[in-house]
Structures are given as C-alpha cells and as structure tokens.
Design a protein that fits this description.
Layout (H helix, E strand, L loop, with lengths): L4 H7 L5 E5 L6 H17 L3 E5 L6 H8 L7 E6 H10 L7 H4 E11 L1 E5 L7 H10 L5 E4 L5 H13 L4 E4 L3 H9 L5 E4 L1 H10 L2 E6 L25 E9 L4 H15 L2 H9 L3 E2 L4 H22 L5
Parallel strand pairs: 1-2, 1-3, 6-7, 6-8
Antiparallel strand pairs: 3-10, 4-10, 4-11, 5-8, 5-9
Helix pairs in contact: 1-10, 2-10, 4-12
Length: 309
C-alpha cells in the first residue's frame, strides 16, 4: 500500500541532509547557504552538510543536485548562470533545469557592482570606457565563471560601449575579485560580498551598479542606466532546488522552513551584511523567475554567439 505524502513529510527527515552550493567558500552564495543551513538544522532536527562545488560556473553542483535521489535529503542552492543561462550556452548540459529540478524557494537577490583595479585612472563608467578603448584589446576582465551573470553582463556592456577586453573566468567571486585586486585582470561585475574587503582595503574601486535603481548599501554609486547604458540591467538571484520527483509534501515542508528562516530578523541582518536582499516566496514564483530570465537572456546569447562547450 502506498504511503500518503503527508505521512512521508511528517516522518522526514530521519537522517542528515546535504546542501550543495554552486559556488566556493567565502562567496555570497556560500554565506547565504551557511546562514540558512545553520537554522535549517534546528528547524528539521537533523545535521546538514554544506558541500561547496564551484566548478563549471556552478553547473557541476547544479547537475549533482539534479541527479540526486528525489527523497528530500539533497538540495542545491544555485543561481542565474546554471539555471537560466547555461541551457543556452552549452550544447551538452548534463541537466535540464525545467525537467530535472524542482524549485523550492528564491533565497536572495542582489545587483552586480562594476569594479576596477584601484590603480587604474578610472573613477567612472566613462573613464573605464575611455581607458579600455585606449588600451585596445590589452585589458582582461574577470568573471565569476563561464555562463554567469558576471560574464554575460560584461559582454552586454562591452558590446554596447564598444570596447575590447579578454574574458578570464574564475570558479566563483572571491578568486575573480582577487585577480582584479592584484591587477591580473582589470575589471569585474561581482556581487558586493566578495568585493567588500578589497573595497575597504583600497585595492579595487566600484564605479557602478547594475540594478534599475541605486543600491541602498552603496547609494553613492550610479546605475549603469544613469551612466548612459539603460539596457544593462542585471540582478543576481539564487534559490534552493531539489531533484524533480521529490514529493510535493517535502518541497512544501522545505519551502515553509526556509521562508520562516528568511523572515527572521537575525538571519536577514546576516544576509544583508553579505550584500544580499533576502527573498522568499512560493515554489511557483521561483519557477516563473527561472523561465522569465531564461527567455530574457537567450536572444543576447544568440546575438553574441557565446558558446561554452
């Protein structure tokens, strides 16, 4: 006799859980995963292992999540690149986000900041464009990985502004930003978390933000729209998913627990310190976001003929 889904949800979990993280230690996604993971342990009464897998621009962790048993014990926290962009960039992606993953909840959003090495004669978007054009193709920009919002946002900006630069992808924001701080690369679009220590130390300089309006944590930074590029708007987002086929009762249980965590003042404060805006909501809202972002970026990827195979 089949066990009712409600009974499964009541008994679950009975053993440790695992949260795959599609970014490396120290990244904004890692900070978020640990804030949620610490509290999810208490909410569910079981240990929870954080498993960072930054390779492949987050596609490795996302694929591992998609290929896990659909029993609620393995989750993945992933983001724009692996979920909405990668299907248009890889001919042979080992998962289909729409088919192989069940969205649970959007966990946070954040704009990218455009940052440059602090030793460059660059204090504005106009300065950067002039400097890049004068350098020809000798400048290199970092990204947090192939197929990432960091990568595509720079490609969109570069194509509209008319400058050349060589792409140098890294496995996550911390090494990408560190490369700019060392002047191995000269610019990057990154979430604020990895930039913060280098901004404070004066090794990198932020010159713009990619959101539609100014970012409250950096109110002095103009948007790219204010800087003459209204078409370059890119908000980072991330969320937790489980393998397709996971019982809806378990998805709902996780959704409720994580939404409760994202509503806790202490958790929200820690997430905000990481430069992220706590989100939340229903699984259907997360699924709709993935579809909308995929449809939005696909034409640009085709136009620029970006392939990552």
């Amino acid at each position: 006799m089949a066990v009712p889904a409600t009974a499964i949800a009541q008994d679950w979990p009975t053993r440790p859980l695992r949260l795959l993280v599609a970014a490396g230690p120290g990244s904004s996604l890692d900070v978020l995963a640990r804030v949620i993971g610490e509290r999810l342990r208490d909410a569910l009464g079981q240990p929870l292992v954080i498993d960072n897998r930054p390779a492949g621009g987050g596609t490795v962790a996302t694929a591992a999540g998609a290929q896990s048993a659909p029993d609620g014990y393995t989750m993945v926290i992933s983001f724009n690149g692996p979920l909405a962009l990668a299907p248009h960039l890889y001919a042979k992606l080992p998962y289909d986000p729409a088919r192989d993953l069940a969205p649970v909840v959007v966990t946070s959003t954040s704009p990218n900041l455009l940052a440059v090495n602090a030793d460059l004669p660059v204090r504005s978007v106009a300065d950067w464009i002039a400097h890049a054009k004068s350098a020809g193709n000798r400048l290199t920009y970092a990204s947090v990985g192939n197929a990432s919002s960091s990568h595509l946002t720079m490609e969109l900006f570069r194509s509209l502004a008319g400058f050349e630069a060589v792409h140098s992808p890294y496995n996550g924001a911390p090494p990408a930003v560190a490369s700019v701080a060392r002047n191995e690369t000269q610019a990057v679009f990154s979430a604020p978390t990895a930039l913060a220590p280098h901004l404070q130390a004066g090794r990198v300089r932020a010159i713009a933000v990619t959101s539609a309006t100014r970012y409250p944590l950096f109110p002095e930074l103009p948007t790219l729209a204010e800087s003459g590029f209204p078409g370059v708007e890119a908000v980072l987002w991330n969320g937790i998913l489980v393998p397709s086929g996971t019982p809806r009762a378990l998805v709902d249980r996780l959704n409720g627990a994580i939404n409760a965590i994202l509503a806790q003042p202490e958790a929200r404060a820690r997430i905000a310190l990481a430069g992220l805006d706590p989100a939340g909501g229903a699984p259907e809202a997360f699924a709709a976001l993935i579809r909308a972002e995929s449809a939005r970026w696909a034409p640009l990827i085709r136009k620029l003929a970006i392939r990552l195979d």
